[in-house]
Amino acid sequence: YASHVNNSPPRSSLCKNLFGGSLAYSTPVVVTGSAALIRQYFLDGFYPTGQRNLKDSFDPSGNLIKAILLNGGQAMNGVDNDMGSVYPSAPYDAIQNYGRISLIDSLYIHGKSNIQARVFDRQSIFSNKQKIELFTIDTSKGCGGKEFSAMLTWTDFPGLPGCQSCLYDDLDLFVTKNSNHIQRYYPNGRDDPDTIHNNERIRIPASHGDTFEVTVDASNIVNNPHSYSLVVTGCFGGVANELNTNENVFLNDHPKQAKDNKTLIFAGVFVGLAIIAATGYFGKQLRDTRSRPVIMPEERYQMHIENIVANPSVSELTEAAFGNPVHSTLDKPLIDDS
């Protein structure tokens, strides 16, 4: 896929994106599965009405399938590095390129899509020629799409190693809105023609009654004529999407809120464990206090005297200090009855 590198992500973020989700999982499952569904869509005759009609069946080219996948891509916030840390990303950068695949924004199925599509497959063009297609936004039947999107794809010979501008056959896409030919919209987030990539997408805000002129310009063609595929999406008279998308995981993904929730959970667990530990400690102290025998004052005095008698050195010191033999105190009652 084409990409414009604005800021390279940290290696850890990029590796997590590549091996933790984007390539390891989505490529074989989401991309190939979506490509198969797109092909089946045309073979079953769902185009252009959004309802099955085998009379409309045709076999789409690989270029057309790729154009539909890229045209419907939705922007992502960035790479989620867990714990609420998100490395930012923008459309056409090295992380997301054209964004996450979304078939609901790619092809029209009656009552189950956000947009309608117009496709131009296996178109031929000669060098220095242009092909122009006109479109008018029509939301009268309930279509709720807010954008006009055009996607151009074509195949090209492999570029030479180390080349900076590698296209042999260079096609350019640009769009004008409401007959304003002074302002041109260019692809892939650029302000001028893209001479590097063979996938070009333009997105413009749109409302009912807006008109768009889409131009494919064969600025430099080596192999005449050259084939391309063009996909355009927007509101072209289709009905509203009746599906409930409120539980869309992408619209309800809030890493910062998840981080705050985890912090509160960890804090609650820590406080709970601290309370349990404190309760156990003080409970043990209370039990030990209750189980310890109570020694009355006279018993304590008797124990002290017995200790002195058992220790001659202490007895001698006591006798020298007070002039009375220690053993004489043993003949006296510990408590005076009077």
Q: Can you tell me about this structure?
A:
Helix 1 (11-43) packs across helix 2 (62-71). Strand 1 and strand 2 (86-88) form a beta hairpin. It contains five helices and ten strands. Helix content is 31%, strand content 21%. It has a four-stranded antiparallel beta sheet with strand order 3-10-5-8, with helices on one face. The longest helix has 37 residues, at 255-291. It has 338 residues and is of the alpha+beta class.
Write the layout of secondary structure elements.
Blueprint (H helix, E strand, L loop, with lengths): L10 H33 L18 H10 L6 E3 L5 E3 L27 E10 L4 E7 L10 E7 L16 E8 L2 E6 L13 E7 L5 E10 L5 E9 L20 H37 L5 H14 L1 H11 L16
Q: Which descriptors would you attach to this protein?
A:
about 350 residues; Jelly Rolls; 2 domains; 4-stranded antiparallel beta sheet
